Structures are given as structure tokens and as C-alpha cells.
């Protein structure tokens, strides 16, 4: 990213077609009557997006009613709080008035004649004409204080006051709650120190008197008791009484807020709390001191010159600038370009047409609605179902027969969402599909590769612009022999590397596919010419590689002929000019560009008569994608995704190993299959284990359903078995009554026996997936990169 916010593709063969940045269209948010376009986007930006379970459409999501009831203080809860409190007050009043005997109120320290002393700490009384030797001992109420503390603890535990305290402490600090807490603190202090509140006129609770009496006994020998000690003790008691009310009222956060507002006002800044400002005012920019930028963007938004793509793109640019420490460049770019800052290299700021609902702030696309069923948790029932980068990073497998809606209801919305996120700079997407598949118009992509179409502007680089012959051989080996049991990708790497390395050393570039085919077939003239160019001593290692390949040519175990036969599928007249052999007429595109830039790429595969060639190209793209996803793994801040509309013949042991590593590289793959039988049977288990999200559409067979059932496992459920047993009476009168009852009703007298058990049951059985999923529905399970998951649930793709 340059200082002016633009991006280029230097160093790659991407060459995206430049398009001018036109005026933004009307925001794709449903407007309210009488609202301006700017107000529509502002309302969408300010809408609360709560945290939710994986797969829940956060935009407009409201938590279930049961969860909201748990946060309120219901009448039952209030009654449970007050009843123990009232009982405790009544019991303590009886205790204090002597109606409940309390022998241990006064501590017996002297002779039996010295019981029932009177007086207080300030005015000790005399007993039998003599003074009490220890002032204050007659008023020592240690047992009474302990009894009062025990009573308070029981009220708190039985009344659930701890739950209520957590309820209020967890809420947001506000002045009203702080004032209520201050009033409660005054009432509590009036019970502890009634002398300070002459109006109340009630007795003090036994808190200070027992503590000070203990202090008198402990410090009597040192002569330190007196007025200062009592003042210190009173201060400590006041602090202990005020502390819980300060927590409940949020006094400290409120004081910090007021001080921050005074500091902002002193510097002429906006005194409003940043966290409470609407998102349309760009509070994060204001918190960082970027007030001029925030005011400019807020004006652009209200004037209707920004859409949802612009908002998400600038937020992504701000996040990236903070991470890289380029705040000055961010400020300069936004002040010069306004809402058009950090525009996509293509110049596009929106798509010409949207078919799905998107929320670009969370990166979600809505694909349907979670069906309300018995197995559906309360949080999912009836709310929107969505997919986002946090789930697509674990890869998605979609299985459903033709006509079930894989492309129209799943693949198309996901591809559209990824292309929109690419316009915000947070994603790069490669879509591989058959020619004519409705996955968006050409204007929605920066690069469109039409393999086999002479009118195509771009070509596909079979070597992904790599310079290492071993890496290039790995790509081709996976594409050519990944699905062959006779050769295999591991055996195919070595002969390809033995030819690619010497050829690059001799000519400075890799051979075209027709030339590589001739070398694999063992063409004597081609091999001799290649060796003649490696006579220099610096090519001694390459000569040894080439000589080893020549010695293997024609041997019984030589994989060269099999690889040449596979290359012949791409060396056809229909593909003339493609795969790097087109000269200057077609610009080659390297898949490596998506690792450096948020590009939108679509590769149209040949269809009629070239199905095997299309599968070979798909395997090649998947192998290259897994390799380029590793580039700039730590520095890349955008998500990289590959969408395969038809993954038939693509899944190989090597590709599964690569897919498993993608989630840690901020990348993911979307695989669509008509049936699991399109994958070798030995790879069924590894395939379901490699992907984190799985979807079974309506119409799958029981064979396909069994694989999903195994992957989703079992769960413990509670079952009830009801058995009816005939009652046999022993007494004659009882037998007579049973006979009359049977004569009248026609049924014998029985009793029911109910047995409740915990059994292990499949989440979805193969039969249920094949016959119980309605048309237009699917069963979807999701997993995020953090390990959060949604169980397999029924989703209505038409909702």
C-alpha cells in the first residue's frame, strides 16, 4: 500500500484491468420511509452487532427471551431477597428487646455476682459501690456482634444477594445507579452510626461497639486506647461500609469519566465519552486524536457519499495503519481523498448487483435461516444463518446432488461475499467453476481466465511464477498424477524435477507444456539439445540430473510415459496458446498474486468434451493455492480463499494434507461435491477430518449420509420408556372391582412403569439425512479457528 492508499501488482503477472472509481451507489441496506442515503448507512453502521454463536447472523440478532429473562430481577427473585431480610430484622428486634434470651451477650470475666453489667464505653457504671477496673468491659458484646454477623451472612446466602450484586456490578456505570448506591450507603451508615443521624432514632447495629471493646482489651496494657483509636476504628468501619456500595454504583469508573471529560473540555475537544458515541462518528479515530479525519468521514457519510463497502474499507485501513505504525500516511490519504481513500486497485467501490444480504463489518453473508426444530438450541431457532471468515478459515465441504441448490444457494452467496470483502482490502478470492456458471458477472472480478477461449484476456501460469524446480515439479506432479494409483504424486515429482531444473538452467525459464511432454516421452533430439546447452562446468549438477532422467527413460518403472499421457490432455488444439505458450497475445496470470494483493479471480474451466482436463486444471490450482497461501503468512493481513464449484477428482492425499494446514495460514477452501463417491473411498475419513464446516443438502443418499453421521458422532440424550403391566389383585373384593371395571370398559386394569435412561444416539443418522431433510434445506455444522463450534443443525436455505 502506497502513501496515497493505492495498491499495485508489481512483481506479478496479475495485471488487473483498471476501472475508474465512479460515484458510490445507493447503500445496500433497506431504507426506511423518508430516510436519506446517508442516514441509511449511518443507521446500518450504528446498529448493534452482539456476539453470537458460530453461524448466527449478527446484524439485527436479538438474544433469546429466556436469556433476557435471566438478566432481569423477576418478582420471584425480589421476594427471595426480601423474605430472609424481613425474617432476620424481626428476629434481631426480638433478640435486642430480650424476648429471645441471650445469655452470652455479656462476657463473664469476674465473679458470678458480676453478671448483667450496664453502661456504655463512654459512661461505665459502678457495681456495689466500686468502679469497674477495665473501662468498657461491661459493654463488651462480642457474642452479640458475632451473632449479628452470622445473621447477615445467612440473609445474603438465602436471599441470593450475591447474584443481585453481580447483576448490578456487571452493568454499565451511570449517574442514576451511582446516586441510588449513595442513598443506600447513607442508610447503611445510619444503622451503624445512628448518633450521626439524630432524625432516625434507632439503636445501632453491633458493629463498632464490639470492635472497640476488643481494642480496649488488647491495648489496655499499652495505654493507647482513647479518642484517636476510636476515630481510626470509625474511619475503617465507614470505608468497609462504603466499599460495596461504591462497587455497585460504579463510582470509580464514573469519576474517571468525569475527569476525562474535564480534560477534553479544557483542551477544546469533544467531551462526549468515546465508547458511547455512535459508530457513524468514528469514535476509534477520535480516541486516537484523529478528530479532523473523523469529522471529515462523518460529513461524507451523512452527505450520502459513502456506502457500506467504503465504511468497511476505511476501518480496515485504519486497523492496518495502526498495526504497521503508519498513522501519518492514513491521515494524509483520508484528508486528500475522503470517502474514496484506499480504494481497491480496480477502482471499484461496490458490485453492480447483489443477490445476498451482507454485513461487511463482520464479513458475514446470510445463506438462510436456522429452522426451529426439536434439536435446535434456543439461540439458533428462527434466526439467520450466516457464513464468515472465522468459519471459512476452517474450510467448508458442501455435498448435494444436482439441483439441490449448491451453487445458487451456497457457493454463489459465499463467492459474492468474498468479492465484496476483497473491495474492502480484507480478502482475496479465487473462484474455479465451469464456463457459464452463474457466480457473478465479469465486472465483479479483476482477473477472468477462460481456459480454452481464444477471447480470454488472461492465461494461467502453470508454474505460479516460482523459481525453484522442485516446487514447480510438486505442482505439476499433484495435478498430473495425484489421482493415479499406478504412479502417484510422490513418484512423479522426481522425473519432473530432473527435466525442469536443467531446462531452466539452459534457457532461463521453464518449458511450455508441449515441450515438457516431448521431454517426458524421451524425445532424443530434445534431450540431446538440452544437454548440449549444459556443457559449462557451472551446470555440472544439472547435467547429472538430466543424465539420470535419460537413463530412466524406457525402463519398466519409468513414470514419464504416464505423465506425458496426462499432459496430452492439456496439449490439445482447444488449448492452443494457453499455459504459457501464447506469446504476447494473452497475459499470463500467476496465482501467487493473491498472496500479496486483495484480488478477485475467476477461472472458467472447459466443459464439453474436456472434463478430465478440467479436473487436472482444478488440481493444479488447488496445489498452487496451498503453496502461495504460505507466502507472507505472518505479514499478510487479508484472508485468502479458494472456491471450487465442482471438486470432483480434486481431493488427493497430498491436497488433504495441504488443506489441513490452511487454517493456520489465514486461508481456506470451499469444496462442492455432488456425491462423496466422487472422492476415493480411502480418503472419505481424512476429507471430513480436514474440513471444519460440513453441509449436507437435501437429497443426499444414505451412503453419503453415513459419512456425515460418522463425522458428526453421537450425543447423550434422555429417553423415557413407558410399560403397562396388568394388575393382579389378591383380595376377593379387589378382584371383584377389577372384574366389574373390565366388564364396563372392556380393558384390564393396568399400571404404567416409566423408565428414564441416558442413551447415546447419532446426532443425524444416515436415514434422516437421506429422507428427513426437506427440499431447500440442509444440515450444517460449523467450526471456527478458535475451536468454537455449532452442532449439526437444520437450516432453511430459502429463508
From TrEMBL:
<feature type="transmembrane region" description="Helical">
    <location>
        <begin position="205"/>
        <end position="225"/>
    </location>
</feature>
<feature type="compositionally biased region" description="Pro residues">
    <location>
        <begin position="17"/>
        <end position="34"/>
    </location>
</feature>
<feature type="region of interest" description="Disordered">
    <location>
        <begin position="1"/>
        <end position="38"/>
    </location>
</feature>
<protein>
    <submittedName>
        <fullName>ATP/GTP-binding protein</fullName>
    </submittedName>
</protein>
<keyword id="KW-1133">Transmembrane helix</keyword>
<feature type="transmembrane region" description="Helical">
    <location>
        <begin position="73"/>
        <end position="95"/>
    </location>
</feature>
<feature type="transmembrane region" description="Helical">
    <location>
        <begin position="232"/>
        <end position="254"/>
    </location>
</feature>
<keyword id="KW-0812">Transmembrane</keyword>
<keyword id="KW-0472">Membrane</keyword>
<dbReference type="InterPro" id="IPR027417">
    <property type="entry name" value="P-loop_NTPase"/>
</dbReference>
<feature type="transmembrane region" description="Helical">
    <location>
        <begin position="142"/>
        <end position="164"/>
    </location>
</feature>
<feature type="transmembrane region" description="Helical">
    <location>
        <begin position="176"/>
        <end position="193"/>
    </location>
</feature>
